[in-house]
Amino acid sequence: MKRMIICAALAASIAFPVAAQEVSLGRFFGACEDAGSDTKASVGEACIIQSIINAASEQIDSVTINTLPTDWGNYYDQIKAAYAGGTPPDVHVMHRHRIPEFAGLGAVANLSDDLSAAGIDTGDWAPAALDAVSFKGGVYGVPMDFHANLWHVNMDLMQAAGLVADGNPILPSSPQELLEHAKKVKEATGQDYLAADFAQFPIGVRLTLALMWQQGANIFTDDGTATINNAEAKNAVTAITQLFDVELANPKLNYADSQQAFLNGEAAILVNGTWVVDFYAAEAAKSEVALNNYYVADFPTLFSEGATWADSHMWAIPASLKANEPEKYQAALKVLAFINDHNIDWARTGHMAVRNSVLNSDDYKNLPHRAEYAGTADIAKDTPPSERYGAIQDVLNRELQAIWLTGKDVDTALADAEAEVQDLLDR
Amino acid sequence: MLNRSYYWLILAISIPAFIWLVPTIWMVSLSFQPNEVLARTTSTTALGLIPYPFTAQNYADLFSFGHTPLWFLNSVLVAVGMTLGVLLVSTTAGYALARLEFPSKTLVTIVCLIGLMVPEQAVFIPLYTMFADFGWHNSYHALILPRVAVPIGVFLMYQFFKAIPKDIEEAARLDGVGWLQIFWFVMLPLARPAMMTLAILTFLYAWNDYLWPLVSAQKREYFTITLGLASIQSNFAQSEGLGRVMASGVIASLPVVILFLIFQRYVVQAMTVGGTKG
Amino acid sequence: MNQKLAAPKRLLSQNQAALILLTPFLATYALFLVYPFFRGFWISLHDWNLLAVAFNPDAKEFIGFENYRKVMWGKNIGWSIFANPIMQVLGLIGVALSVYLYRTRRLSRATAIAIGIGSVLLILLPGFHPGEGGRWYDRRFWPTVGNTLLFVGLAVPGVTVTALVLAAALNRETRAMGVLRTLFFLSQVLSVTVVTLIWQIMFSPRQGLIANVTELFGGSPIVWLTDERFAMAAIVITTIWWSLGIAMILFLAGLQDISRDLYEAGALDNATGTKAFWFITLPNLKRTITLVIVLQIILHFQVFGQSHLMTNGGPNDTTQVLVRYIYQTGFRDSELGRASAMAVFLFLIMGAFSILQFVLGREDD
Lengths: 427, 278, 365
Known about the structure:
- The complex is a heterotrimer of chains A (427), B (278) and C (365).
- In chain A, 44% of the residues lie in helices and 15% in strands.
- Chain A has 427 residues and is an alpha/beta fold.
- In chain A, the strands form 3 sheets. In chain A, strands 1, 2, 3, 6, 9, 10, 11, 12 and 13 form a 9-stranded mixed β-sheet that branches.
- In chain A, strand 7 (164-165) and strand 8 form a beta hairpin.
- In chain A, helix 8 (203-213) packs across helix 9 (231-245) and helix 18 (389-406) packs antiparallel against helix 19.
- The termini of chain A are far apart.
- Chain B has 278 residues and is an all-alpha fold.
- Helix content of chain B is 74%, strand content 0%.
- In chain B, helix 4 crosses helix 8 (151-162), helix 4 (68-99) runs antiparallel to helix 11 (192-208) and helix 4 (68-99) crosses helix 13.
- With 365 residues, chain C is mainly α.
- In chain C, 70% of the residues lie in helices and 5% in strands.
- Chain C is built from 17 helices and 4 strands.
- Chain C has helices at 2-6, 14-44, 50-55, 66-72, 85-103, 109-124, 141-170, 175-186, 192-203, 209-216, 228-256, 260-268, 273-284, 286-301, 305-311, 322-332, 336-362, and strands at 46-47, 61-62, 74-79, 128-136.
- In chain C, the strands form 2 sheets. A two-stranded antiparallel ribbon of chain C has the order 1-2.
- The radius of gyration of chain C is 25 Å and the shape is globular.
- Chains B and C meet through helix 1, helix 4, helix 6, helix 10 and helix 11 of B and helix 1, helix 2, helix 7, helix 8 and helix 9 of C.
């Protein structure tokens, strides 16, 4: 049926050139084939975004949207390949950290002058959101969220270990306390204290980065000097490895396995992003899922200052579309405006909204668990901008995995990581 | 010949053969189990090897809103297109090199066959930029063309035509039949088994190719089933559900397995020829 | 069509016919293999960013062999015989063995030369190492080559031995044997994505069949794909399961060529069963074995899907392989020049094995 609509739309666009535009849309978040177009009912990142897209396709006059592949693994490889092949999608999602690379090369369009005409009020964006999509004075995209690492908590396990006070979990405030809490949970319940994907995606990297930032350190300076082989990094790493050393956490779990462990009640804490809050809440409500009493907490401060890894999802339009196909460019802007208008729906995933009007609305404040991680926006942080963000994360992920999966010496691993990141920064 | 030790041998090999088959059985079995159950455990009945509780819902879902049917069709198109292309260029060139006399034939033969040394992985980047320059990516011809000119095909046909006795075509020559007619009416019918072999080899290769479609096709409309399957199995969110992913795997495999079972003789022959002589 | 073409008095000359028949192949061949090959080499001589060049064709810079240096060389690289004693001693043994076996006529000249060259490389290459304060410019390249070699070194003997044993056991023309052969061959026709899909789940410590079986016997499951000690083993097992078929078929074909008389003569000398396998089957199958090995080396050196889909090259790069590194460098890091330099390296190795295969195929003919 969908194909027929698209075919019909295509046929119509041939007959009346201005009547209909088919906008191709690139995104990750995974596939949701039966999302429908009810933006209030869908659950999980994949289905919520797809329902918004489906609704846009239905509701915007003379615009139909064709969603491209949605897998994570090869997303940026594929987007680059598409740009290089001259066939980028008409709108696509990307991370804030990719702006230096894509805007720097002139791949994505500068939207500054066209946003208000399209009904997008940049004044309504939170300052950090505007900052996220800005590059050298221009606005290169429409921000959709802030997402950050959170601590997802199984309250039943915490309760059993005596780590609950006034209905709130007691979280550690130092690496020593982290270890003590972990021991308590193990003794009381036999389960691991903390689980996270330490073996696949760079979630362990983000955890380590947060602990470095909490000591006022960073992995490289703004002028491009790698600073990884130092005491702060070592503190951060050992804060985590001390749990592995006494088997209070398992570094070998990948993304799906760590999530499953948490849902099965085999870990008191899961370190994962904002994107799973509604999904875990929905799972916790099911009787057959071991996790019953679900709570979300800000990433605790184990050192001197609060910090957690954060990034933004944003939507961009290729520069070539703006230059060569003004009508389709307008259609693409309409799609971005629609997504911007549905910021509240996207926030249902657990992500933080970017629009002040949404952030201050009751609908937003009343979202499940929202109040529990209200502090996260203030401690959100990321590494300095770099065109080599992806490759740098990859280096860190490899070296950190070497430490906790293969027993590589911490000093050697950090020295290697520093040398390699420096190479990337110098390239 | 068929003594007792023979039956012991059969029994002894049946055990590893069964173990060999277990992963495949498991995939099929998982594809017939409900996703909600699989999310909790994969070993409900007999370690999950028997699909109980049973459901065919995964297949129904696959065909009602997955892209699997489209990808399946793409794979058929690409594989058939590539096979026809390979047959066309390989039989003609193989015949010319094996049976016709023309200036600097040795040189041409060497030039044609030296390409056997170049693995596809060594040229996929330049091919990618070249197709990008032409604006050819995301199309069926982009998926088909780079694999049409395979020297191994020419080599197979060359070997085959070389082995045909001379007198067959000499008789035709005396009757004043042209070379092209001899090729078309005399040689091609003779070459049918070799073409069959080459066709199956190419079809299997096309059906299973991964790297080139991965870099060339970014639009889902042009995914082959192999590529599409890779895209759903790497899903972060795993929203598809294990059962449905497995069902896609079964659907992706069915044609090649059936093809193999029907044409087993040719496949075996293809592997033998391609292996020892290539 | 025949009416029309056969009717004219003047038929096409042989040259013209050859030209017509060769054109389709030569055109596609030149366009899609020969030209890309040289273009790949040309790209490898440039600093060539995938995106930058796409937007501005002049954004590339000719830098000669700098990419090769950046990929394969380093700062203060020295050579010594003790840099990697294990590999180098293995190489020395290899050289000695090939000379000895050739002298005693147990190896043909080509095979001896091939093993000899391989062994010399084994002495030479691992001998390079960064000296005081030095380091490789690309710390991942040689380890990646090493992983690829390790993969080949595990998968090829694994496939060869298993296939050989099965072929010897299944070498009878009965219906039951035919069915068993089919069973073992079946996995060969599956695509890499299906194979990795199955085995990814098979190996999963949580949902995997292997883990389920281990737990049934009270063991704690192995975390195959993220444990350094097992990740490579896991993709090797997957590969053996997947690609046993071709090798088995080739061995069966080789076995058919061994005359029954040999076995009957052997039976008179009490050589049956295992003994017959060692003293009759193996020696007569030598050429097939060599061919299977070379073929497998060429095939498995190009491994990509297993590593890309099952382990993402991890943990800690232990399953990162050459083709995946080329793909990553080209499409994730956008550095087509470097990626192409690696592709040329891949071609050189593959080319060497292709020549070896060709020579071996010619031998004894």
